[in-house]
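Appendix B, record 7
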Amino acid sequence: MNYLRLLSLLLALPAASLAAPATHDAAAAAAPASTEYGVSAKGFDGVLTAKRPLNIVMTNDDSWASANIRAFYYALRRAGHKVLMVGPSHNQSGKGGTFELPTSVNLTVAGRGGFVPVGAPYAGRNLTDEGLRYFNGTPAAAASWALDQEAPAFFNAKKGDTTANVDLVVSGPNEGTNLGPFLYTLSGTIGAAYFAVERSVPAIAFSGSNAMRNYDVLDLDDRTDESVRLARLSADFVTALGDATHGDRERIMPLGIGLNVNYPPVGASSNCTSLDFVHTRLTGGAFVDTIAVNATTGLPQYVNYVAKGINQCNNGDCSLAGETLVVADKGACHATASVFATDYDAPTHVIKSLLPALQRGIKKVNKNQKRDF
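Structure tokens (predicted):
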């Protein structure tokens, strides 16, 4: 799939209603015959059935105990996808793409919510659902553990297949948005996604506007639950994108390309009842941090700052709206989908004026350094 076709698919994604599903919708998933916990929950009635079921690895930075990732797991399975979830045992928010591995065979600190106790092994799984697994590492490391150690057997990959027969890695939905280039580098949710893209596996990072919540408070039959709504929306997004390439088994996205998806508040108390996905860009209204000193405590604190440098458009379609501005529009109900690339080289046309000075500088320093060897 080429880049332009990916953009056309994003623009063609339909609006998603948050109301109860219409009973005549032939494209919607009927309640499965199985009564397996989670998958058959009423909250996922109406989820699109995949014409092209995908092999999906999922992770996040909030830990496998997050309500968001658990609901998303069941929604994807309801859609017909085969899903392996390997989430961090502990909250790993803000770790970006850092790659931290376990330093002990057994946990010395309990995982988030105590769902992985002290003394448990650094990697493990749910006793009743083999698709639910954890790893004591950062999000990027959890994604790597999934691809290298868990997914090959789970998806019956051929020997030597470094993608482990995985069609897509999804990360999230995060507990809180991840908007703009600054959060792109800071977010563990996005860090896991761009790590997967670097490993040649298409990836999507999803982020919601809801607060931290453990999975044990979820009512998966409640369609108005925000985690359940995020799960339905995200599962439909994945299915729609996958089905757009149905029949030819091509990649869902080109090599080196991923997606960053962000949602406004979609809970029962929000004014969002019919959500549209909008194709956006990372820059535009995005912020970076500055540091100020709190007058009361005397301690440094960060302050969001909309700087020109972070919002300079050097790549892609500069006419697109910035994802930060679109999600912040309180009068609308838009989710954003921004395409990112892991090729960080600057475009030639932008650095044209810099090149002569750079080349002269390199030549001069190389000549000078030869005197020291």
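Remarks on this record: The chain has one domain: 3-284+311-369. The two ends are 49 Å apart (CA to CA).
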